Automatic annotation (TrEMBL):
Residues 1-20 are annotated as: Disordered. This is Pimeloyl-ACP methyl ester carboxylesterase. One of its GO terms (cellular component) is membrane. Coiled coil: none annotated.
Protein backbone atom coordinates (compact mmCIF):
# COMPACT_ATOMS: atom_id res chain seq x y z
CA UNK A 1 0.00 0.00 0.00
CA UNK A 2 1.35 3.45 -0.91
CA UNK A 3 2.04 5.61 2.13
CA UNK A 4 -0.19 8.36 0.69
CA UNK A 5 -3.22 6.09 0.37
CA UNK A 6 -5.99 7.54 2.56
CA UNK A 7 -7.46 5.55 5.40
CA UNK A 8 -11.05 5.02 6.35
CA UNK A 9 -11.97 6.87 9.53
CA UNK A 10 -14.71 5.36 11.64
CA UNK A 11 -17.70 7.14 13.10
CA UNK A 12 -20.21 6.20 15.74
CA UNK A 13 -23.49 4.59 14.74
CA UNK A 14 -25.61 6.28 17.40
CA UNK A 15 -27.44 9.56 17.11
CA UNK A 16 -25.74 12.78 18.23
CA UNK A 17 -26.86 14.22 21.58
CA UNK A 18 -28.06 17.34 19.74
CA UNK A 19 -28.86 17.91 16.09
CA UNK A 20 -29.73 15.31 13.48
CA UNK A 21 -28.27 13.30 10.62
CA UNK A 22 -28.87 14.65 7.11
CA UNK A 23 -28.13 12.55 4.03
CA UNK A 24 -25.82 14.30 1.59
CA UNK A 25 -24.21 12.54 -1.35
CA UNK A 26 -24.92 9.07 0.04
CA UNK A 27 -23.60 9.87 3.53
CA UNK A 28 -25.29 11.10 6.68
CA UNK A 29 -23.83 14.27 8.16
CA UNK A 30 -24.52 15.56 11.65
CA UNK A 31 -26.04 19.04 11.49
CA UNK A 32 -27.67 21.35 14.03
CA UNK A 33 -29.55 24.44 12.87
CA UNK A 34 -31.07 27.11 15.10
CA UNK A 35 -32.38 30.64 14.83
CA UNK A 36 -33.81 32.44 11.83
CA UNK A 37 -32.94 35.17 9.37
CA UNK A 38 -29.82 35.84 7.38
CA UNK A 39 -27.14 35.84 6.40
CA UNK A 40 -26.76 32.49 8.12
CA UNK A 41 -23.63 31.96 10.20
CA UNK A 42 -21.95 28.61 9.47
CA UNK A 43 -19.20 27.25 11.73
CA UNK A 44 -16.43 25.19 10.12
CA UNK A 45 -14.52 23.36 12.84
CA UNK A 46 -10.81 22.70 13.12
CA UNK A 47 -9.25 19.24 12.86
CA UNK A 48 -9.95 17.10 15.94
CA UNK A 49 -12.93 19.33 16.69
CA UNK A 50 -16.62 18.76 15.92
CA UNK A 51 -19.62 20.99 15.45
CA UNK A 52 -20.90 20.70 19.02
CA UNK A 53 -17.58 22.07 20.29
CA UNK A 54 -18.89 25.43 19.05
CA UNK A 55 -22.30 25.15 20.76
CA UNK A 56 -21.50 28.15 22.97
CA UNK A 57 -21.16 30.39 19.91
CA UNK A 58 -23.99 28.70 18.02
CA UNK A 59 -26.56 29.32 20.74
CA UNK A 60 -25.64 32.98 21.07
CA UNK A 61 -25.64 33.57 17.31
CA UNK A 62 -29.05 31.88 17.00
CA UNK A 63 -30.47 34.72 19.08
CA UNK A 64 -30.00 37.13 16.16
CA UNK A 65 -29.70 35.06 12.95
CA UNK A 66 -29.62 31.50 11.60
CA UNK A 67 -26.72 29.45 12.93
CA UNK A 68 -25.43 26.10 11.65
CA UNK A 69 -22.91 23.68 13.13
CA UNK A 70 -22.05 20.34 11.56
CA UNK A 71 -19.55 17.46 11.41
CA UNK A 72 -17.61 16.77 8.23
CA UNK A 73 -17.79 13.24 6.86
CA UNK A 74 -15.38 10.95 8.70
CA UNK A 75 -15.54 13.03 11.90
CA UNK A 76 -17.80 13.29 14.91
CA UNK A 77 -21.24 11.75 14.42
CA UNK A 78 -21.17 11.89 10.62
CA UNK A 79 -20.73 8.78 8.49
CA UNK A 80 -17.24 7.44 7.70
CA UNK A 81 -15.21 8.82 4.82
CA UNK A 82 -11.77 8.31 3.35
CA UNK A 83 -9.39 10.71 5.09
CA UNK A 84 -7.58 12.94 4.37
CA UNK A 85 -9.58 14.86 1.77
CA UNK A 86 -9.01 17.92 -0.33
CA UNK A 87 -10.26 21.32 0.79
CA UNK A 88 -12.44 21.43 -2.33
CA UNK A 89 -14.14 18.19 -1.30
CA UNK A 90 -14.85 19.57 2.16
CA UNK A 91 -16.16 22.84 0.70
CA UNK A 92 -18.41 21.11 -1.82
CA UNK A 93 -19.76 18.82 0.90
CA UNK A 94 -20.64 21.82 3.07
CA UNK A 95 -22.37 23.57 0.19
CA UNK A 96 -24.41 20.44 -0.58
CA UNK A 97 -25.36 20.15 3.10
CA UNK A 98 -26.53 23.75 3.34
CA UNK A 99 -28.59 23.35 0.20
CA UNK A 100 -30.07 20.09 1.50
CA UNK A 101 -31.29 21.70 4.74
CA UNK A 102 -32.52 24.73 2.76
CA UNK A 103 -30.31 27.39 4.32
CA UNK A 104 -30.09 30.07 1.61
CA UNK A 105 -26.86 31.73 0.58
CA UNK A 106 -24.94 33.94 1.06
CA UNK A 107 -23.30 32.72 4.28
CA UNK A 108 -21.05 34.19 6.92
CA UNK A 109 -18.47 31.43 7.32
CA UNK A 110 -16.64 31.11 10.64
CA UNK A 111 -13.62 28.88 10.06
CA UNK A 112 -11.26 27.75 12.82
CA UNK A 113 -7.74 26.42 12.13
CA UNK A 114 -8.04 23.76 9.39
CA UNK A 115 -11.68 24.81 9.06
CA UNK A 116 -10.43 28.30 8.22
CA UNK A 117 -8.63 26.87 5.21
CA UNK A 118 -11.77 25.00 4.20
CA UNK A 119 -13.84 28.19 4.59
CA UNK A 120 -11.45 30.11 2.33
CA UNK A 121 -11.59 27.29 -0.23
CA UNK A 122 -15.39 27.55 -0.14
CA UNK A 123 -15.04 31.28 -0.82
CA UNK A 124 -12.62 30.61 -3.69
CA UNK A 125 -15.01 28.12 -5.29
CA UNK A 126 -18.34 29.81 -4.55
CA UNK A 127 -17.65 33.54 -4.04
CA UNK A 128 -21.26 34.53 -4.77
CA UNK A 129 -22.44 32.38 -1.85
CA UNK A 130 -20.22 34.06 0.77
CA UNK A 131 -21.36 37.20 2.59
CA UNK A 132 -18.34 37.42 4.88
CA UNK A 133 -15.53 35.48 6.53
CA UNK A 134 -14.45 35.21 10.15
CA UNK A 135 -11.20 33.25 10.34
CA UNK A 136 -9.96 32.04 13.72
CA UNK A 137 -6.25 31.31 13.35
CA UNK A 138 -6.88 29.78 9.91
CA UNK A 139 -4.73 27.27 8.10
CA UNK A 140 -3.06 29.27 5.33
CA UNK A 141 -0.86 28.55 2.32
CA UNK A 142 1.79 31.09 3.42
CA UNK A 143 2.40 29.37 6.77
CA UNK A 144 5.96 28.31 5.92
CA UNK A 145 6.92 31.82 4.81
CA UNK A 146 6.14 33.31 8.22
CA UNK A 147 6.78 30.56 10.78
CA UNK A 148 10.18 29.48 12.17
CA UNK A 149 11.86 26.55 10.43
CA UNK A 150 11.00 23.87 13.04
CA UNK A 151 7.29 24.63 12.49
CA UNK A 152 7.35 24.80 8.69
CA UNK A 153 5.13 22.12 7.21
CA UNK A 154 7.25 21.33 4.16
CA UNK A 155 10.35 21.01 6.34
CA UNK A 156 8.54 18.66 8.70
CA UNK A 157 7.27 16.56 5.80
CA UNK A 158 10.74 16.33 4.25
CA UNK A 159 12.28 15.31 7.58
CA UNK A 160 9.64 12.65 8.06
CA UNK A 161 10.14 11.30 4.53
CA UNK A 162 13.88 11.04 5.10
CA UNK A 163 13.35 9.22 8.38
CA UNK A 164 10.96 6.78 6.70
CA UNK A 165 13.21 5.81 3.78
CA UNK A 166 14.11 2.46 5.32
CA UNK A 167 10.56 1.67 6.46
CA UNK A 168 8.14 -0.29 4.31
CA UNK A 169 5.03 1.43 3.00
CA UNK A 170 2.80 -0.73 5.17
CA UNK A 171 4.79 0.12 8.29
CA UNK A 172 4.57 3.83 7.49
CA UNK A 173 0.82 3.54 7.07
CA UNK A 174 0.43 1.81 10.41
CA UNK A 175 2.62 4.37 12.12
CA UNK A 176 0.58 7.26 10.71
CA UNK A 177 -2.64 5.81 12.09
CA UNK A 178 -1.29 5.00 15.54
CA UNK A 179 1.06 7.94 16.00
CA UNK A 180 -0.79 9.14 19.07
CA UNK A 181 0.38 9.79 22.63
CA UNK A 182 0.21 6.75 24.87
CA UNK A 183 -3.16 7.08 26.54
CA UNK A 184 -2.23 6.18 30.08
CA UNK A 185 -4.94 6.34 32.71
CA UNK A 186 -3.27 9.40 34.19
CA UNK A 187 -3.16 11.18 30.82
CA UNK A 188 -6.79 10.31 30.05
CA UNK A 189 -7.90 11.74 33.38
CA UNK A 190 -5.85 14.87 32.78
CA UNK A 191 -7.44 15.39 29.36
CA UNK A 192 -10.87 14.62 30.77
CA UNK A 193 -10.47 17.39 33.32
CA UNK A 194 -9.31 19.89 30.68
CA UNK A 195 -12.22 19.06 28.37
CA UNK A 196 -14.77 19.15 31.17
CA UNK A 197 -13.53 22.62 32.05
CA UNK A 198 -13.90 23.94 28.52
CA UNK A 199 -17.35 22.38 28.14
CA UNK A 200 -18.50 23.36 31.65
CA UNK A 201 -21.44 25.44 30.40
CA UNK A 202 -22.65 22.90 27.80
CA UNK A 203 -25.89 21.01 28.70
CA UNK A 204 -25.05 17.95 30.80
CA UNK A 205 -26.00 15.29 28.21
CA UNK A 206 -23.97 17.05 25.51
CA UNK A 207 -20.95 17.77 27.71
CA UNK A 208 -20.62 14.26 29.06
CA UNK A 209 -20.80 12.61 25.65
CA UNK A 210 -18.46 15.16 24.05
CA UNK A 211 -15.79 14.64 26.67
CA UNK A 212 -15.83 10.86 26.33
CA UNK A 213 -15.87 10.90 22.53
CA UNK A 214 -12.95 13.32 22.36
CA UNK A 215 -10.98 10.78 24.41
CA UNK A 216 -11.91 7.86 22.13
CA UNK A 217 -9.33 6.32 19.79
CA UNK A 218 -11.64 6.72 16.78
CA UNK A 219 -11.97 10.47 17.22
CA UNK A 220 -8.28 10.93 17.98
CA UNK A 221 -7.31 9.00 14.85
CA UNK A 222 -9.81 10.94 12.72
CA UNK A 223 -8.12 14.18 13.80
CA UNK A 224 -4.68 12.84 12.90
CA UNK A 225 -5.86 11.57 9.52
CA UNK A 226 -7.77 14.70 8.56
CA UNK A 227 -4.68 16.87 8.92
CA UNK A 228 -2.25 14.37 7.39
CA UNK A 229 -2.25 16.11 3.96
CA UNK A 230 -1.42 19.65 5.07
CA UNK A 231 1.36 20.08 2.51
CA UNK A 232 -1.06 19.22 -0.28
CA UNK A 233 -3.57 21.69 1.11
CA UNK A 234 -0.92 24.42 1.00
CA UNK A 235 -0.67 23.95 -2.76
CA UNK A 236 -4.43 23.64 -3.22
CA UNK A 237 -5.15 26.92 -1.47
CA UNK A 238 -2.27 28.71 -3.22
CA UNK A 239 -3.53 27.58 -6.63
CA UNK A 240 -7.19 28.24 -5.82
CA UNK A 241 -7.22 31.99 -6.39
CA UNK A 242 -7.57 34.97 -4.11
CA UNK A 243 -9.99 35.61 -1.29
CA UNK A 244 -13.13 37.36 -2.62
CA UNK A 245 -13.85 40.97 -1.70
CA UNK A 246 -16.14 40.38 1.27
CA UNK A 247 -15.95 41.68 4.84
CA UNK A 248 -13.24 39.70 6.61
CA UNK A 249 -11.95 39.54 10.18
CA UNK A 250 -8.94 37.39 11.08
CA UNK A 251 -8.07 36.55 14.69
CA UNK A 252 -4.63 35.79 16.09
CA UNK A 253 -4.53 34.08 19.51
CA UNK A 254 -1.39 34.98 21.45
CA UNK A 255 -2.04 32.62 24.35
CA UNK A 256 -0.39 29.21 24.62
CA UNK A 257 -2.22 25.90 24.50
CA UNK A 258 -1.20 23.41 27.23
CA UNK A 259 -0.10 20.92 24.58
CA UNK A 260 2.15 23.47 22.92
CA UNK A 261 3.79 24.41 26.20
CA UNK A 262 4.63 20.75 26.81
CA UNK A 263 6.49 20.27 23.52
CA UNK A 264 7.86 23.68 22.54
CA UNK A 265 10.50 25.90 24.12
CA UNK A 266 9.62 29.40 25.29
CA UNK A 267 11.72 30.83 22.45
CA UNK A 268 9.93 28.76 19.81
CA UNK A 269 6.56 29.72 21.26
CA UNK A 270 7.47 33.40 21.01
CA UNK A 271 8.67 32.96 17.43
CA UNK A 272 5.51 31.07 16.55
CA UNK A 273 3.26 33.80 17.93
CA UNK A 274 5.21 36.54 16.15
CA UNK A 275 4.99 34.61 12.87
CA UNK A 276 1.28 33.95 13.24
CA UNK A 277 0.59 37.57 14.04
CA UNK A 278 2.41 38.75 10.93
CA UNK A 279 0.79 36.11 8.71
CA UNK A 280 -2.76 36.85 9.81
CA UNK A 281 -2.21 40.60 9.60
CA UNK A 282 -1.06 40.10 6.00
CA UNK A 283 -4.11 37.96 5.25
CA UNK A 284 -6.44 40.66 6.58
CA UNK A 285 -4.61 43.30 4.53
CA UNK A 286 -4.98 41.24 1.34
CA UNK A 287 -8.63 42.24 0.85
CA UNK A 288 -10.17 45.72 0.83
CA UNK A 289 -12.47 45.07 3.78
CA UNK A 290 -10.13 42.98 5.91
CA UNK A 291 -9.41 43.52 9.59
CA UNK A 292 -6.96 41.82 11.95
CA UNK A 293 -7.80 41.37 15.63
CA UNK A 294 -5.55 39.97 18.37
CA UNK A 295 -6.59 38.01 21.46
CA UNK A 296 -3.81 38.17 24.04
CA UNK A 297 -5.29 35.67 26.50
CA UNK A 298 -6.68 32.93 24.27
CA UNK A 299 -4.89 29.92 22.81
CA UNK A 300 -5.26 28.38 19.36
CA UNK A 301 -7.36 25.29 20.07
CA UNK A 302 -9.93 26.89 22.38
CA UNK A 303 -10.02 30.42 21.00
CA UNK A 304 -13.78 30.06 20.50
CA UNK A 305 -14.27 29.40 24.23
CA UNK A 306 -11.57 31.56 25.81
CA UNK A 307 -12.38 34.44 23.47
CA UNK A 308 -16.12 33.82 23.15
CA UNK A 309 -17.18 37.43 23.67
CA UNK A 310 -14.70 38.77 21.13
CA UNK A 311 -15.78 36.20 18.54
CA UNK A 312 -19.46 37.03 19.00
CA UNK A 313 -18.69 40.73 18.63
CA UNK A 314 -16.78 40.03 15.42
CA UNK A 315 -19.75 38.10 14.02
CA UNK A 316 -22.06 41.01 14.82
CA UNK A 317 -19.61 43.46 13.25
CA UNK A 318 -19.38 41.41 10.06
CA UNK A 319 -23.15 41.07 9.78
CA UNK A 320 -23.37 44.87 9.98
CA UNK A 321 -20.88 45.17 7.11
CA UNK A 322 -22.14 42.57 4.64
CA UNK A 323 -23.78 43.46 1.34
CA UNK A 324 -27.43 42.70 1.85
Amino acid sequence: MDQHTPHRATATDDAPPLGRLQEVGGRRLMVHRSGSGGPAVVFVSGASAVGLDYLNLHDRVAEFTTSVIYDRAGTGWSDPAELPRTAATAAEELRDLLHAIEVPAPYLLVGHSLGGGYARRFAQLFPDEVAGLLLLEPFHEDWDAYLPEPLQLRKQAADQAAADQQVTDQQVTEQQVTDLPELTEELVEQFRGVLAGYFALWPDPVREVLVERHLSLDWLQSGVLERSNLVGLLDELADGGGTPDVPLIVFTAMGVDPGQAAFMSDRLLREQNAGKRALFAALAASVPRGEHRVLENAGHSWLHVEGEGAVIQAIRDLLDRVDR
